[in-house]
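Job type: complex structure
Entries:
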Amino acid sequence: MIPGEGCCSTPMVAEPVSEPDAVAFAQTFKALSDPVRLRLLSLIAARAGAEVCVCDLLDAFAQTAPTISHHLKVLRDAGLITGERRASWVYYRVVPSALAELSQLLDASAMTAAADA
Amino acid sequence: MIPGEGCCSTPMVAEPVSEPDAVAFAQTFKALSDPVRLRLLSLIAARAGAEVCVCDLLDAFAQTAPTISHHLKVLRDAGLITGERRASWVYYRVVPSALAELSQLLDASAMTAAADA
DNA sequence: CGTCGAGTTTGACACTTGTCGAATCCGATG
DNA sequence: CATCGGATTCGACAAGTGTCAAACTCGACG
């Protein structure tokens, strides 16, 4: 094939995410890829820096307690929230920096792509 | 239980995402929850408004053409990219507004949560 | 110390998803 | 019109995921 014509020109690619980074980010996005988890995160984030008790969250869902607990674990493992046991109850809060990092990644991609020549 | 003590106080919840919205956003995040798709999107977005031919993308992955095509379809169905056939080749470009919307959602949650009292 | 209640872990099961090979579609070109 | 090559679709299968019931852990409280 003659270079520079047809497709497959422009071999230079600006700055795509590296493969290891892609794996890490994908894992985090996977934690957000469930409606229950998104609403959980939203409910926790809505508390403006304060904490949310699990018992508060259970009322908002049709799912059983084990299921909610499972989803909270997924969010915790992804580093999006942290949980702390105090007295009989467990309180969760979000990790703002984790959300901000994802936001910036998407924003950067949007900006780069929107830079229409 | 006595209201106002222990856990389960503060019944008001600021402004969580609605359940239908959660389903829609979760579906979009699911499209981002795979390393291959994340790198595909990144490679396409890195072209700064220009297009990328599928044949360019294939070289960057160990996966076969059908697999890459499948992932491109997922990204397309999620509204994150658009594809256009011209001559023998298919060219893809990202939809900046879709990425921006997700970015804002995460940023808003991060901001709300970071508003530490 | 026995019990109770909040929350998590375990085990099981239906369903979804990433992957590939084979077949198909669709322009272009001879 | 036959053929070729790029890209997608189809069919199948292993691996992963959401869900629940049952069992377990851990403080608190009587």
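Summary: Strands of chain A lie at 52-53, 81-86, 89-94. The two ends of chain A are 27 Å apart (CA to CA).
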